[in-house]
Amino acid sequence: MSVVIITGSCGLIGSEAVRFWIQKGFLVVGIDNDMRSRFFGQDASTLGNRGRLQREFPQYEHRDMDIRDEKAMQSVFSQYGQEIVMVLHTAAQPSHDWAAKEPLTDFGINATATMILLEMTRKYAPEAVFIFTSTNKVYGDKPNELPLIEMDTRYELPLTHAFGARGIDESMSIDQSTHSLFGVSKVAADLMVQEYGRYFGMKTGVFRGGCLTGPGHAGAELHGFLSYLMRCTLMHKPYKVFGYAGKQVRDNIHSLDLVQAFWEYFLNPRKGEVYNIGGGRSVHCSMLEAISLCEELCDAKLQWEYQDQNRVGDHIWYVSDTSKFENHYPGWKRQYSLRDILTQIRDEMASRTKSGLV
Average pLDDT in the 344-352 region? Predict the structure, then answer.
């Protein structure tokens, strides 16, 4: 039996990947201890996703374990050994703001645990593919040095700039910038995953994501931009916009589009490779534009207020150039538009609200 280990298996990307790999016929072992509820409160808990996965797929094997626990990870990896064909590492502490509250916890989850997982893979399943969900925050606030132009509803980068037509590629420096402590812990993990590929020859891939989103997201104020925005619009809750006049731009990628990218890499892995991955120029928006679309889809006005202070290390404009990945894996195409994504999030939230699950 070919075994796939997925950390953060009940989160947005993890749960999407569990469904995907089980449907492909793999034995999936998921590791998730619902730390998200500690980070962001019960509204952001992943227990609902866990229950849905276990009901939908009785063969799904769940481990309620902490990825920082070396002995616990060793017990999982030693059980399956070389039957493990892939480790998909999606677990993380994902918030700028939360990291500043507990830097040691943030670094332990994002960096030290990644090192533990890499070592377990090297020791027990050295031929397995190891995929790491990194973040565009590894670039710190370096993107804010771009010659951006303020427009009516957004900041924009001129198309004549090297990054203008397709977005920011992997050549952007990660040095001499403010990352936030979260960004630094993810940089440490990002580089370590690369190094295990380059130094040990392992099949390791780093995916530096933009905004990862979809109907399975348990969005909260500190993390989960589109999901939390739709939740506030749909449920008539107040929403705060932090800085940049609400004109900051993000690209957004549906969880299934990202998992499809992981699948392409799994089928033909490279060693120590790095990819920017996101919605690119085809799926991006400013905060103001996202608010407008949510209001349109919900036929309701969002109760939002503006705070002039932006979050430390936050991007003014970030759009991923995914051309490197597309060149390496020409079979991959995005399937979901911004409207598709927000419509799915709205419908899922409405359904759960009606069922008393939200």
Answer: 90
Task: From residue 279, give the alpha-carbon distance in Å to each of 11, 32, 174, 344.
Answer: 20, 27, 21, 16
The pairing of strands 304-307 and 273-277 is unpaired
The domains of the chain are located at: 3-354
Percent of the chain surpassing pLDDT 90: 88
pLDDT digits (tens, 9 = 90+) for 195-235: 999 999 999 999 999 899 999 887 777 677 899 999 999 99
- Arithmetic mean of pLDDT over the chain: 95
Task: Give the model's confidence band at 356: pLDDT under 50 very low, under 70 low, under 90 confident, else very high.
Answer: low
Of the candidate CATH numbers 3.40.50.300, 3.40.50.720, 3.40.50.12160, 3.50.50.60, the domain formed by 3-354 belongs to: 3.40.50.720
